Amino acid sequence: MNQSAFDFDEPVDRRGTWSARWEKHAGRDVIPLWVADTDYRAPPAVLHALAARVAHGVFGYSVVPEELCGLIVERLARLYGWRVSPDWIVFLPGVVPGLHLAARHLAGPQEHVLLPHPIYGHFRKAVQLAPRAAGEMPLVLERGRWVFDEDALGAAVRPESRLLLLCNPQNPGGTIFTRAELARLVQFAERHDLIVCSDEIHCDLLLDAGKPHVPIASLSPEVSRRTVTLMSPNKTFNIAGAGCAFAVIENAQLRRRFSVDLHYTVHDASLFGYAAAVAAYRGGDEWLAAQLDYLCGNRDLVEQAVARLPGLSMAHVEATYLAWIDASALHLADAHAHFLAHGLALSPGSDFSAPQFVRLNFGTQRALLREALVRLETAISTSAG
Hints:
Layout: H1 20-23, E1 31-33, H2 44-56, H3 66-80, E2 89-92, H4 95-105, E3 112-117, H5 121-129, E4 133-142, E5 145-148, H6 150-156, E6 161-167, H7 179-191, E7 195-199, H8 221-224, E8 227-231, H9 234-237, E9 245-248, H10 252-258, H11 271-283, H12 285-308, E10 313-314, E11 322-326, H13 335-341, E12 344-348, E13 357-361, H14 366-384
């Protein structure tokens, strides 16, 4: 593999490109490390495919490319030993709409949803907007990893509980759940007859060798029949703006319920999303391996910086490019506002119902990350003073 062919250190100026992350603080001396996309150009294969689409010049309504279905089926079998049928795949514009479809259609108005805590904000928003009653499944820090407090699961479930939402790898904690951990969660779901909706968008962003991703639906045919798995190339290959994701749903009844709004209130994946996904899955793996090496270096820089700064702590990031940083020991009224005042925009922990935390996106050029960590250190020294 010739990783030197990919230069992740090359600066990419995203100002003025409608980037959500960069436009929010435009005109200010702020380094934006919040929204979960990266500052890396997509793989060359993706850029070439999109350029070819633009050169063709016609951007009409599209059908799902058969090749993409085949690439997904092959990829899931190769990476996870998970054999799925093409007709289990439901295409979406993104994983977030999938969370909202699950909350609205897989739990009834009088039923109850189980949510991890802390969790990416759209999980909670999907349940609130459905609206459905919800209970929290707390995650606890155990030997440097965020894992489910299994003793607390029984307290969260109700007789009317119907849907369990999962994020694996976990956002914001960065945990890759092990096969054994998932098996215990499945036993809980089966005991209480829960449907599982698992957001696995970060499944390719694995930073630790020897820690594989295990799709929860791949554990057994019985689990597969009660599971909706949400996946996408968007995070992996930095193509979220193109718009393509998919759900894998074996159970035909669940698939019909989940899909009832598709093509109506929820639009299809985009033409450019399809083209980018085909190219990424067909020719992006070498680029992905190089990106993961680079992200590991960035992850290590962040972990080392946080370890030496008083008042901050974080778990080891096994997956994702997101650092979940505990600032509670600083006793700040608003940790997010404090860091922003020092030129560093992080995701506020309140977005994850954990206001004493902040989330730092280290998917950027290393020189910019180093500058951001200097600002982090300055902010800490100011808080101590």
